[in-house]
Design goal:
2 domains; Arc Repressor Mutant, subunit A; six-stranded antiparallel beta sheet; Chorismate lyase
């Protein structure tokens, strides 16, 4: 019986004979592209290390490195530090379910180009459940509420509602979040380091507000993420509601025993 490991080994067997005057790395990247686009190399298939690929193709490591870079730039391969090079999934795959990483950081890791837009920003009286989560009350129960979108290829993929205690973040200018991550601003501009967070995922149907903000049909399925971020002291510093297009993004995890 064929095991997943032997199946992967069989899939990675290639026959390469250079032809013509085209650069070797271009010929190899084209062969790899054909393997990926025909499904011979399926999503998530882990490629051998560069030295092994060099032996497999009978070329130098530098040639293999250039071929891989071509396919990474084309969005067909992805490299994950400490794990290797993989055939990229057709849908966006985000690993922020397993570690303290933001949506922006996750997209950056994957080399995905995206745009961030600030839709609104206001200091408001905190809704009761947010005030409770953030541990604020009385005269200090106001929050800075910021709504943003993150778009990939012109489509809104994420809708983010962030709530920060107005004290001490009332001076935060939301437009800086177009180019910088929220956690980066908190750490670099306010000396506040997020040390842990709790994330809860659930499925929702987009209501009128969400569908309008994300450009989706009313009732479209979305993944909802509730997030509460804490400083290392244990004090809550940020509450978020995040909606994710479930037809464009999958949440994945690397799990070790």
């Amino acid at each position: 019986m064929e095991t997943p490991d032997t199946a992967a080994e069989d899939a990675l067997q290639v026959s390469f004979t250079p032809v013509g005057s085209e650069a070797l790395h271009e010929q190899i990247s084209q062969l790899m592209r054909e393997k990926i686009e025909t499904g011979a190399w399926p999503e998530h298939l882990k490629l051998p290390a560069e030295p092994d690929l060099a032996v497999l193709f009978g070329v130098s490591r530098g040639t293999i490195r250039r071929a891989i870079r071509t396919l990474i730039d084309a969005g067909l391969l992805v490299q994950t530090r400490g794990k290797g090079t993989f055939v990229r999934a057709q849908m966006l795959e985000q690993e922020f379910a397993q570690e303290l990483v933001t949506t922006a950081q996750s997209l950056d890791r994957e080399g995905v180009a995206y745009d961030t837009h600030v839709l609104s920003s206001a200091v408001i009286e905190a809704p009761a459940h947010i005030a409770a989560h953030l541990g604020i009350q009385g005269a200090d129960s106001r929050v800075l509420a910021i709504r943003r979108t993150r778009s990939v290829g012109g489509e809104v993929i994420y809708l983010l509602d962030n709530y920060l205690p107005a004290v001490p973040f009332i001076t935060l200018q939301p437009q800086v979040l177009v180019e910088r991550s929220l956690f980066g601003v908190l750490e670099q501009d306010y000396g506040v380091v997020v040390g842990s967070m709790r994330r809860t995922f659930s499925a929702q149907a987009a209501d009128g507000d969400i569908s309008a903000a994300m450009g989706l049909p009313l009732g479209a399925p979305v993944l909802y993420l509730e997030q509460l971020s804490y400083q290392s002291s244990g004090d809550a510093v940020e509450y978020s509601n995040v909606w994710v297009r479930s037809d464009r993004v999958r949440i994945s995890s690397w799990i070790k025993r």
